[in-house]
Amino acid sequence: MALNWVEIDLAALRHNFMQVRSRAGSRAGILAVVKSDAYGHGMVPVARELAAAGADFFGVSKCWEALKLRSAGIAQPILILAGIEPEDVPHVLEKDLRPAVYRPDHCRWLEEASRRAGKRARIHLKIDTGMGRLGVPDRELGPFLDQLMGFRHLEIEGVFSHLATSDEADKTFSHEQLHRFRTALQMFHDRAIPFRYAHIANSGGVLDIPEAHHQLVRPGIMLYGSPPSDEIRDPAPLKPVMTLKTKVLQIKWVAAGQSIGYGRTFICPRPMRIATIAVGYDDGYPRVLSNRGEALVRGRRAPIVGRVSMNLITLDVTHIPEAAEDDEVVLLGAQGPERITAEEIAEKAGTISYEIYCAVGKNPQRLFCNQTNGLA
């Protein structure tokens, strides 16, 4: 066994997917977002599990991610959310990928290559309804559509946008975006431009804004067991998918007045029983949690004392007399009756659960398991 490792619970992943299905109902398909290595959870194993569970589409950020899924046998349509570069065009046509399009030159690249190949490229046109990032600004959509109608080898399979504040309690701006999105969709109808899918609902939209579901929904963070924020009005009973585990390397008594770790940021106020564990910021655990974070040992919380270093952390286990060397330690996840969530870590670190998952998930020692059946 490695000194530290990440466990991915595929049964929890499937449970979360079914929560999406229950919210989306039978009317909307599910585009499962597995970009950035499935938020650190392992893109290929996650996609395979979700494909078996009934995912209709997958969403990635870059073309190489889509190619990796195709190489792994994923047959569902794959949307490349960030768009494409010229060198990606042959792969789009060969592997039947769906690029997001938001620039006229994207259309020209795909039109020319499709014409030469005698194919039609299926695209999803991205509209900026207020996020201010990628997308054709909705006020400029008319001229863009007029130009797009001249491309005979492009099939507009989807039209989509992205909600900026769906995870906030105040849905005012989300409803403004929905209005702008519907107005944009009407421009397609007015020009008799057909499309199959409209989609705008991310995890916050799936949970709190059913009128945003349209023909596809795009869950991301909720698949991995976290709500998009604590302001969600109608949360679902999600199950965390990722656990970060390590082991106790050494336990020793440290005298009162002795310092612990780099910079001597912790001085023992009394004799203390200190456990050194085999994880650090190289393993994605935030250094900012020095003297602030906690870990689970024998099902009890043990505070971090001293600095989080590259490969080691020190814990106060004075109050856990049964703690022993080689014990399993959990820094993210459950042990016995206790659980440390990504949201708890993120709050202490001044970030969001997404970043915690992506950082911790880079651990090369990643085990895929099933709550019921053990290792997958």
Known CATH architecture of the largest domain: Alpha-Beta Barrel
Uncertain ranges: none
- What is the total domain count? 2
Strand content: 25-35%
CATH homologous superfamily title of the largest domain? Alanine racemase
What is the CATH C-level name of the largest domain? Alpha Beta
Describe the largest sheet: 10 strands, mixed
| Total DSSP helices | 11
Mean pLDDT: 96
Per the CATH scheme, the topology name of the largest domain is TIM Barrel
- Care to count the β-strands? 21
Radius of gyration: 24 Å
SS-derived structural category: alpha/beta
In whole angstroms, how far apart are the ends?
16 Å
Helix content: 25-40%
Shape: elongated
List keywords for this structure.
376 residues; alpha/beta; TIM Barrel; Lyase, Ornithine Decarboxylase, Chain A, domain 1; 2 domains; ten-stranded mixed beta sheet; nine-stranded parallel beta sheet; 11 helices; elongated
